[in-house]
């Protein structure tokens, strides 16, 4: 029944978005719903495949939310291909308890809602990890951005524009420091390809979440480009927690 309703909704959304009377706000809302429908459909289709292949997957190392940056030797999980497992991890992880030694995720956590999905994600990682297993998470460093805003560090913000936004179509809108803070908090808002940032993190917040899920040993992680994307190192915070 739900699939039939979704097909009807998709037709309505397409009709609205092609109507010249649709307002900017209505169009934004429709595009966001289109994205969620696509994720739902991908997730639903994968359920059958995953049930059939569950015993064949190598779960010793897992990457979550890596997009096109897949890792060799890892089970790559994302809501879109080319992931090995297409799955919406906001719904949990379709994996058995204590089946993995390492879970790696960078620039993903900020794209899911807090507290419901973010806390569930960390809790599920704890469940799936073996004793002494490790969770490595990388996020844009919220404290760094706010500190530099307070300092009005022009050199830093020039570098931020060059590294993060030079290829975007938003440069004409940057004329104050607060604009860059807002882009950090709401990056990719209303972008047709990517998902907006929904929450920002610092070391204190991630530590609190990880300890709340059961992790006892949490510290900053030394960047390793054998795993992490070198393009992500600048302006990011990486944290490792052991079960």
Largest sheet: 7 strands, mixed
> If you compute it from the alpha carbons, what radius of gyration comes out, rounded to the nearest whole angstrom?
19 Å
Order of helices and strands: HHEEEEHEHHHHEE
The number of helical segments is 7
TL;DR?
This protein is α/β, with parallel strands linked by helices and 243 residues long.
List the helices and strands and how they pair.
Elements: H1 2-17, H2 24-53, E1 61-64, E2 75-78, E3 85-86, E4 100-106, H3 116-128, E5 129-140, H4 142-151, H5 154-165, H6 177-186, H7 203-213, E6 217-220, E7 236-242
Parallel strand pairs: 1-2, 1-4, 2-3, 4-5
Antiparallel strand pairs: 5-7, 6-7
Structure description:
- This protein is an alpha/beta fold and 243 residues long.
- Helices cover 42% and strands 16% of the residues.
- The protein contains seven helices and seven strands.
- The chain has a seven-stranded mixed sheet with strand order 3-2-1-4-5-7-6.
- Helix 3 crosses helix 7.
- The protein is flat and about 50 Å long.
- It starts with a helix and ends with a strand.
């Amino acid at each position: 029944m739900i699939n039939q309703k979704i097909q009807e909704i998709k037709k309505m959304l397409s009709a609205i978005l092609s109507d010249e009377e649709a307002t900017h706000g209505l169009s934004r809302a429709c595009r966001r719903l289109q994205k969620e429908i696509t994720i739902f459909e991908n997730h639903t289709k994968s359920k059958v495949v995953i049930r059939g292949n569950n015993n064949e997957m190598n779960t010793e190392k897992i990457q979550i939310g890596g997009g096109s940056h897949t890792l060799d030797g890892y089970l790559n999980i994302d809501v879109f291909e080319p992931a090995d497992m297409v799955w919406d991890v906001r719904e949990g992880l379709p994996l058995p308890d204590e089946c993995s030694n390492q879970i790696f995720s960078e620039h993903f956590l900020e794209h899911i809602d807090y507290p419901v999905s973010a806390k569930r994600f960390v809790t599920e990682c704890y469940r799936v990890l073996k004793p002494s297993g490790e969770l490595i998470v990388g996020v844009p460093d919220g404290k760094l951005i706010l500190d530099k805003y307070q300092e009005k560090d022009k050199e830093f913000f020039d570098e931020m524009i060059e590294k993060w936004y030079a290829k975007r179509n938003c440069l004409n809108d940057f004329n104050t420091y607060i604009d860059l803070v807002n882009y950090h908090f709401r990056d990719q808002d209303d972008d047709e390809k990517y998902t907006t940032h929904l929450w920002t993190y610092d070391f204190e917040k991630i530590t609190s979440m990880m300890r709340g899920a059961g992790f006892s040993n949490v510290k900053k992680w030394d960047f390793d480009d054998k795993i992490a994307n070198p393009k992500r190192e600048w302006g990011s915070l990486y944290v490792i927690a052991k079960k």
